[in-house]
Design brief:
globular, alpha+beta, 2 domains, six-stranded antiparallel beta sheet, 203 residues, four-stranded antiparallel beta sheet, Jelly Rolls
Length: 203
């Protein structure tokens, strides 16, 4: 096999793996649910966090406590420290959205969060919702590039807006969250890019 064919084969293989890797995602936050439940109201809720190193977002989700589907659809978004909405999506009711172990998650076009303080992930909640809104959980873990700051909420009746008011809750509100690529997926995508670059250089 010639060098060009080797590179072509490498590129094709890596590119195919990269497409498969797009489905590999991990929650940005996991937690021990505990038993405390915050009240559901007609407002947006979420949590504030800092980005310590560039972090790619690939999905937005809503907590499904019993893994039996959501009672209502929830619009979820991420706002940067200036208050600009960076991405948003609606997580549908029921079990249509994939379940990652804690959250029903829908894919979004990947975006990269640059290092900074005061990002917020939030989503619209409803007084009629039967979906549990967890807070004051006994333990939680974030991916290493993120740091949790506080639970946040908006005024009653505000709809889908940036929930910027900090709560007295120990942690929460989950509710909304997001997913990031698994390390293996990142490595595969880098391999695909490298193979394509080598192939171009051989032409």
């Amino acid at each position: 096999m010639t060098i060009v064919r080797v590179f072509s084969s490498c590129a094709a293989t890596a590119l195919g793996l990269s497409c498969a890797a797009s489905a590999w995602a991990t929650p940005a936050l996991t937690f021990t649910p505990g038993t405390f439940t915050a009240a559901n109201s007609n407002q947006s809720v979420g949590w504030q966090f800092d980005v310590l190193a560039a972090t790619t977002v690939t999905g937005l989700g809503w907590f499904d406590d019993n893994a039996d589907g959501l009672g209502l659809a929830h619009q979820v978004g991420i706002w940067d420290p200036s208050g600009a909405l960076l991405t948003s999506a609606t997580v549908p009711a029921g079990t249509a959205a994939p379940f990652d172990g804690q959250f029903r998650t829908v894919a979004v076009a990947p975006i990269t969060l640059v290092p900074g303080n005061g990002y917020i992930v939030g989503g619209e909640n409803f007084a009629t919702s039967t979906d549990r809104l967890a807070s004051n959980v006994p333990a939680q873990t974030l991916v290493p590039t993120l740091r949790y700051i506080d639970a946040t909420f908006s005024t009653i009746g505000s709809g889908f807006v940036r929930p910027a008011t900090q709560s007295a809750a120990t942690n929460g509100f989950y509710g909304p969250s997001f997913s990031v690529p698994e390390p293996a997926a990142v490595a595969v995508m880098l391999l695909g890019s490298s193979c394509l670059l080598m192939r171009r250089r051989q032409k």
